[in-house]
TrEMBL record:
This is Trehalose-6-phosphate synthase. One of its GO terms (molecular function) is alpha,alpha-trehalose-phosphate synthase (UDP-forming) activity. Its EC number is 2.4.1.15. Belongs to the glycosyltransferase 20 family. Keywords: Glycosyltransferase, Membrane, Transferase, Transmembrane, Transmembrane helix. It comes from the Bacteria.
Length: 490
């Protein structure tokens, strides 16, 4: 309701690459799937609360005519109150804009994980052209001359300025879900100036942490002739001013309808253990990630191996369950990661496995929210070992799922979430022994310490939930609009 009041009368348009629901053929039928994406996890509940139009790249296998015709009706029950408008891209556009510039260029450029970015002129041109197509769609969807437009992530760095040109009175809020690197790192991008100029079409530029927003401001200071006011966190460029701030993103709280039907933790354990063929009394260390090289899955496996080697009492007792949702599998760096992880898992299982005990269970599939909640509730430990992560919402989802206040979160220091969830066992994922030690400590942690840590983290996530995130950006935006109006009078 707070969000609705803040937006009363305003038209709201969200733009993201990922669509919140993917329609796929399954035999004769069309099914609806939710993609694995922190962005979708966070923004979808906001959209459900605010209504409006969501423009995204259509990626499912269902017929386009069918999906377009059902842009409202095809959503699952209770999710009808916003329109979903798909942009259909050709294979060539997907290659250049998504696989190429976004995921081989900007993604490794922004994540400090020592994967070399690849920049191709043709990818850049396609990226620009696709941003242009989305700008056209925004203008076509806008019914008023001053809509509120929420531009999401690194797929659309050029969109804010393209929209600003054609809808000068729009309130454009761009949110960068991934880290922003320091000026030297960013400077290797051949189109650094164009990207910064594109982003500065925004009214507000949001980042996950203060560190990232500071990096952005310093990057602009270094490469553009812009006026930077550090004190007010504003950047003025070619007569327009943007406000740069950090807004740590979060998850829905209270949970979605799904949380109402959570079985007790004991029932979750029973269900999960029988599905996985685990012996009662065994314990699960859980990892839930997209199958991405930024997530530190290799380092996690090394740590688990170290744990079993140095604490053989866990052999036969503890399994690492790693959910790795498929993503970007057309790219060589991702294929290399798959191969390496599969090899490591095979070696680990050969070394420590025995009849009735599989040390590592790797599931290279995407699970739905309901099953994930059961896994979170069944696990003894949840481990997030990202090498670098803008926020990481898995950590917050785990905390939210544990209303029994039991279970231990191991969390990489290099996630945005580590700033808020300081009661987790914070680790350096590059330091294998450190992570193994945290696993050991987690497995031995007394119930009352688990309760204290979770209770505190649950308060944080409850208070700083995603509605608060959206409310914070939107109230800054309305204050900003007012100030501009007042300044225009003098
Ligand atoms: C990150 C990005 C999102 C992206 C998601 C999934 O969370 O910030 O923009 O949607 O990863 O990646 P994918 O390429 O599978 O959409």
């Amino acid at each position: 309701t707070l969000l609705r009041t803040q937006l009363s009368g305003d038209e709201i348009i969200v733009v993201s690459n990922r669509e919140p629901y993917i329609h796929e053929w399954q035999g004769e039928q069309t099914i609806v799937r939710r993609p694995a994406s922190g962005l979708v996890t966070a923004v979808e509940p906001v959209m459900r609360a605010c209504s409006g139009t969501w423009i995204a790249h259509g990626s499912g296998s269902a017929d386009r005519e069918f999906v377009d015709a059902h842009d409202r009706l095809m959503l699952p029950p209770g999710h009808k109150d916003y329109a979903l408008r798909r942009i259909w891209l050709s294979d060539e556009e997907v290659r250049g804009y998504y696989n190429g510039f976004a995921n081989e260029g900007l993604w490794p450029l922004c994540h400090m994980v020592h994967i070399r970015p690849t920049f191709r002129e043709s990818d850049w041109e396609t990226y620009r052209a696709v941003n242009r197509r989305f700008a056209d769609a925004v203008v076509a969807e806008a019914h008023s001359e001053d809509p509120v437009i929420l531009v999401q992530d690194y797929h659309f760095a050029l969109l804010p300025a393209m929209i600003r040109e054609r809808l000068p009175r729009a309130t454009i809020l761009a949110f960068w879900h991934i880290p922003w690197p320091n000026p030297e790192s960013f400077g290797i991008c051949p189109w650094r100036r164009e990207i910064l100029q594109g982003m500065l079409g925004s009214t507000i530029l949001g980042f996950q942490t203060r560190n990232h927003s500071q990096n952005f401001i310093e990057t602009v200071d270094r490469y553009l002739e812009a006026r930077v006011e550090h004190e007010h966190s504003t950047i003025s460029f070619r007569g327009e001013t943007s406000f740069v701030e950090s807004y740590p993103i979060s998850i829905e709280w209270p949970g979605s309808a799904a949380s109402a039907d959570w079985p007790s933790p004991q029932n979750c354990r029973d269900e999960v253990f029988s599905q996985l063929g685990l012996r009662a009394g065994q314990r699960i260390i859980l990892g839930v990630d997209r199958f991405d090289y930024t997530k530190g899955i290799i380092e996690r496996l090394q740590a688990f191996e170290h744990l079993l080697q140095h604490n053989p009492q866990w052999i036969g007792e503890v399994s690492l369950l790693q959910i790795a949702a498929p993503t970007r599998s057309a790219l060589a760096d991702y294929q290399g990661l798959h191969a390496k992880v599969h090899d490591m898992v095979a070696a680990l299982n050969a070394r420590f496995g025995r009849a009735g005990y599989t040390p590592v269970i790797l599931q290279n599939v995407q699970h739905d929210q309901r099953w994930l909640a059961r896994l979170y509730r069944a696990a003894a430990v949840c481990v997030v070992s990202s090498l670098h992560d803008g926020m990481n919402l898995v950590s917050k989802e785990f905390v939210a799922a544990r209303d029994d206040e039991q279970g231990v979160l191991i969390l990489s220091r290099f996630t945005g979430a580590a700033r808020e969830l300081s009661e987790a066992l914070l680790v350096n994922p590059y330091h294998v022994e450190d992570v193994a030690q945290a696993m050991q400590r987690a497995l031995l942690m007394p119930a009352d310490e688990q309760r204290e840590r979770l209770a505190s983290m649950r308060m944080t996530v409850q208070e700083f939930n995603v509605f608060r995130w959206a409310g914070h950006i939107l109230s800054d935006a309305s204050r900003w609009r007012l100030r501009e109006r007042i300044e225009a009078r003098v």
